[in-house]
From TrEMBL:
SUPFAM superfamilies: Nucleotidyltransferase. It comes from the Bacteria. It comes from Streptomyces sirii. This is Nucleotidyltransferase.
Amino acid sequence: MTNGTGLDRDGYFVRGGALDRVPARFAPVVAQLGARLTDHFGPDRLHSSYLFGSIPRGTAVAGVSDLDALVALRDEPTDADHAAARGIEAELDAAYWQIDGAGLLLFGVDRLLSELERYDLAWFVACLCTPLGGPDLAARLPRYRPTSLLARETNGDLFRDLPGLREKAAAATTEPERTRLTRGVARRLVRTGFTLVMPRWGGWTSDLAQSAEVFARYYPAHAERMRAAARAARTPAAYPKLLDELLDDLAPWLADEYLTVHGAKAPRP
């Protein structure tokens, strides 16, 4: 049982999805994803695969939600692997009206189980990913609580990435490019804002609207901007001017506040 904040009675994360929660309309997409991963990587390279996001949580909206998956390979992914993943994404997006895009993350098992990723990618697999195929890596990982260490290692790198996000925004000139970037930036800011206050709140939610409301309890001066980001994460095309506003206002404040409260995420090689 949970206490209503995404944790069990002992204060540990409860895994946020399950295959039996996948809405019926999305079942063919998920089945095809599993088949394509098996066909391309085969048992010699594919260790396991996972769904994450709204589809395994059972909250996906047909024609609006995207398909998100993480693929754990027995060795580190190559450039050819990443290219193949982009091909699978395009195939699924073209073949199934139910999804508005697909995204596959590829990682080697050694990296996912490394000490450096213990409170970032490993936590993500153990708590936010739903096993699709292969042995579940969560069996080899610890249980997690909503601590400042977890906050730091999951989202304490916005300050590093902010210049690159601004460069991408300046280079995005077409409406589809701006829409995709707005959705990505808005999602990131809402999740970062939530994890900023997560240890104080003492719980977890993957719902972006709820995340913004939890954030608003602790930072009312920035509440409306965070709520706007949550709305744009859902329907980015409706907010064509918000991207620049977020990157000029909410994002730099959030990056600085995160460093003050939780510190910087450990750099990756």
